[in-house]
Structures are given as C-alpha cells and as structure tokens.
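Appendix B. Raw example, untouched.
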Amino acid sequence: MITIDITMVIQIINMLILMVVLNAILYRPIRTVLDERDRRLAELEKEIATFNKNAELRLQEFDAKLNEARRQAKERLDGVRGEAQEAMNAKLASVRAEVDAAKSEQLAAIKKEMEAARSELRAAVDTFATSMAEKILGRSLA
C-alpha cells in the first residue's frame, strides 16, 4: 500500500529537480536545434520558390526571344525567297526574250532561205522541164 511520508515528498522534489535539469540540459537544446532546423527549412523553401520563379521567368524570356528570333528568321527567309523568285522570274523573262529573238531570227533566216530556194527552183523549172522532156522524148527540143 502507498504511504504518504517524507520519502514521497523527497521523490516529488527529486522529480521536479530532474525535470528542471532535463529541461535545461536536454529538452531546451533539442527544441532550439529543431526550431533552427525549421527556420532553415523555411528559408530554403523561400529560396527554392525564388529560384523556381526566376527559372520560370527566364524560361519565358528565353521562349519569347526564341519565338522572336524564329519570326525574324522566317521574315528574312520569306524576303530572300521573294527576292530570289523575282530574280528568277526576271532571269527567266530575259532568257525567254533572248530565245524568242533567236527563234524569230532563225525563222526569218529559214523563210529567207526557202524563198531563195523557191526562186532558184522556179528559175530552174524551165531548164529542168526542158531537160526532162528531152530525156523522155529522146531528142532535143530547142
């Protein structure tokens, strides 16, 4: 059975002293270390959030610059293609004009040669006809 005497009071005082000593030696330093750790974790979380925000902003900035560079490159490419198309069309028109001129010259030369050949043949038709008639008849027609 439990008896209340001086030993119980000594045990209570002993327990209180133990609590004060343990609090001073063990519990308070552990709580200080845990509070410091929580503070550091909070700071690190803030830094991580800041870094993530900065990284996202930089990524958006990079994407914007990349899109702008792509747009400028496309504009330049379209401009160069247009200039090349115009130059090609101009060169093609020039070549066509040269070819048409050469073709016209050659056709004119061929027509001239044909007319010359016709006039020669017309002039020689009488001689040729006379010669053929003489051969067929076997005698001279003159």
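End of appendix B.
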